């Protein structure tokens, strides 16, 4: 009898809340006839990897805000939609895995509330600010080492025909980005050295430093079954309690591999710090584990209640978030930048001409050419409009299909994209694609054309009232931390390559694969600039 009453009460509560939701979101057009009372259709789209396609169609038919589940919305307009959600700093969903969090066993990071998130962000934010990066000797030396000590020699090998004569721009980019970010975090002497291997040497790679091995495990973390943890966490937990784990074995193997890998990186950085502290060794700026050390000190200060193991877990998780940008975003965008340039020799020539016009000699590391009173190289490169336009255009085209879900605040209703009274705890998502690839916002939307950025008035026109804005790093308090580092690095790499070489695109099998996925390949070759 008591059980029956409880079930009835539960049903009544459920109906009451469902009706309230139905009522409050009734003005939002539904993407599918079932979306008002069930999430089945959007879950199916997410499971099959067709969410973006499904939503593009829905927005095309129904406008800038659509209902995809009883408490799940998608928004595509920038000024009255995306800005209201992201600039206001709505939190991330508890179950949704951040694209930058792979320490899945680290419970402290499963859902960071606003204040925890603020604490975590403050640990490293100052190091990633534009002014800090521009004056960083560490970054300047690391950039020289990676570009002149690893990247250009790698291209020279290709040029000399010692190799197959062809390389995958994406593979090259993943290698250089991992080496670069790990140098920035842990010091050059402790970085990965993925760039010393080329993709056609895969078979003989040493298991310890193989990008391929790292990448396979990294991909396994985003395996299809991770969908259950992300989208149906209740079901996942229930089945797990019943001893049915929906995650495959390769997932736990990948977690273990990557945790061990990160732990080894941190051990190396710790040894460098110990050498400096106990033996008084003076480190070259490039070898300083700058970001790691700052994070370690910050965690000690802001989380004294945690034991050493838990503190270490936080540090490892934080570092992994940063390194993973090399695979998720920076690697993808730089790889495609090489590909777009390889397909547009005119753009390469224009970068070269712009460097000459501003007398920036990129043939050797920055400290070789430092004239007294001259602007330092990072500032010089940062002032080049065409180079900037090239990078902006690459960021418009990629990345594109990462969901960025947010949850409306738990304590109030909000208005988004012309809809008032959106109830608390409603999921709202947008894709960068909606901003960057909407043919009603951009001319020739799918053409790679840096010129469009030169004709735009950056200072006055960038954000005010416009829909054709650049939004690759999201916005608001959870905006990407690495946006200035991205420009810094891409400016140096593209300028150095265009000064010495001409990239050419090789015939490309147009495969239907996700850009940046293991199946994707961007074949290029190089010739010496005449
Ligand atoms: C092409 C380059 C990059 C793109 C397009 C990009 C994009 C993004 C986006 C869209 C977010 C927000 C994610 C969300 O809200 O769910 C984000 C966050 C973040 N990014 Fe980037 N990113 C790039 C490079 C980097 C680099 C180089 C780093 C650092 C090494 C980095 C570190 C981070 C971190 C730590 C966060 C989390 C920020 C927070 O939660 O406060 N990113 N990035």
From TrEMBL:
GO terms for molecular function: heme binding; iron ion binding; monooxygenase activity; oxidoreductase activity, acting on paired donors, with incorporation or reduction of molecular oxygen. Heme binds at residue 480. The keyword Iron applies. One of its GO terms (biological process) is mycotoxin biosynthetic process. The keyword Iron applies. Keywords: Heme, Iron, Metal-binding. It holds the Pfam family p450. Gene3D superfamilies: Cytochrome P450. Its cofactor is heme. It comes from the Eukaryota. Belongs to the cytochrome P450 family. PANTHER family: CYTOCHROME P450, CYTOCHROME P450 12A4, MITOCHONDRIAL-RELATED. This is Cytochrome P450. It comes from Penicillium freii. The lineage of its organism: Eukaryota, Fungi, Dikarya, Ascomycota, Pezizomycotina.
């Amino acid at each position: 009898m008591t059980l029956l009453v409880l079930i009835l009460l539960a049903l009544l509560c459920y109906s009451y809340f469902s009706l309230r939701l139905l009522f409050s979101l009734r003005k939002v057009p539904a993407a599918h006839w079932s979306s008002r009372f069930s999430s089945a259709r959007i879950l199916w789209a997410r499971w099959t990897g067709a969410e973006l396609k499904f939503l593009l169609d829905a927005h095309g038919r129904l406008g800038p805000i659509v209902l995809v589940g009883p408490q799940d919305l998608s928004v595509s307009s920038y000024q009255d939609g995306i800005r209201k959600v992201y600039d206001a700093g709505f939190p991330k969903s508890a179950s949704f895995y951040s694209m930058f969090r792979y320490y899945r066993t680290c419970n402290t990071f499963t859902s960071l509330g606003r204040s925890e998130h603020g604490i975590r962000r403050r640990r490293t934010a100052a190091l990633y600010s534009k002014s800090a990066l521009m004056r960083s000797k560490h970054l300047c030396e690391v950039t020289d080492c990676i570009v002149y000590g690893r990247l250009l020699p790698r291209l020279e090998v290709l040029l000399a025909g010692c190799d197959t004569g062809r390389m995958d721009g994406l593979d090259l980019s993943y290698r250089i980005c991992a080496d670069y970010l790990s140098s920035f975090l842990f010091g050059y002497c402790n970085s990965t050295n993925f760039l010393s291997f080329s993709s056609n040497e895969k078979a003989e790679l040493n298991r310890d430093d193989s990008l391929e091995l790292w990448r396979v495990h990294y991909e396994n973390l985003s395996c299809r079954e991770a969908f259950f943890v992300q989208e149906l966490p209740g079901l996942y937990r229930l089945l797990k309690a019943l001893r049915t784990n929906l995650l495959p074995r390769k997932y736990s193997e990948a977690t273990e591999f990557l945790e061990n890998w990160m732990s080894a990186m941190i051990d190396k950085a710790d040894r460098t710090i110990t050498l400096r502290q106990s033996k008084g060794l003076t480190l070259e700026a490039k070898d300083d584990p700058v970001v790691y050390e700052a994070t370690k000190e910050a965690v000690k200060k802001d989380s004294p209640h945690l034991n050493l193991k838990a503190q270490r877990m936080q540090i490892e998780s934080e570092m992994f978030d940063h390194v993973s940008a090399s695979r998720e975003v920076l690697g993808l965008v730089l790889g495609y930048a090489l590909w777009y340039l390889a397909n547009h020799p005119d753009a390469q020539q224009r970068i070269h001409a712009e460097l000459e016009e501003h007398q920036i000699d990129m043939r050797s590391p920055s400290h070789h050419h430092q004239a007294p009173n001259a602007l330092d190289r990072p500032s010089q490169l940062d002032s080049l409009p065409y180079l900037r336009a090239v990078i902006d255009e690459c960021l418009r085209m990629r990345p594109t299909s990462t969901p960025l879900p947010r949850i409306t605040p738990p304590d109030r209703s909000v208005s988004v994209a012309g809809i008032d009274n959106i109830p608390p705890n409603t999921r709202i998502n947008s894709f960068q694609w909606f901003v960057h690839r909407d043919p009603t916002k951009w001319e020739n939307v799918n053409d790679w054309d840096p010129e469009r950025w030169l004709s735009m008035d950056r200072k006055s026109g960038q954000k005010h009232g416009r829909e054709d804005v650049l939004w690759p790093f999201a916005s608001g308090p959870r905006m990407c931390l690495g946006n200035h580092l991205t420009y810094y690095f891409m400016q140096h790499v593209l300028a150095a390559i265009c000064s010495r070489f001409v990239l050419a695109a090789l015939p490309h099998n147009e495969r239907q694969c996700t850009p940046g996925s293991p199946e994707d390949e961007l074949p290029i070759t190089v010739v010496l600039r005449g």
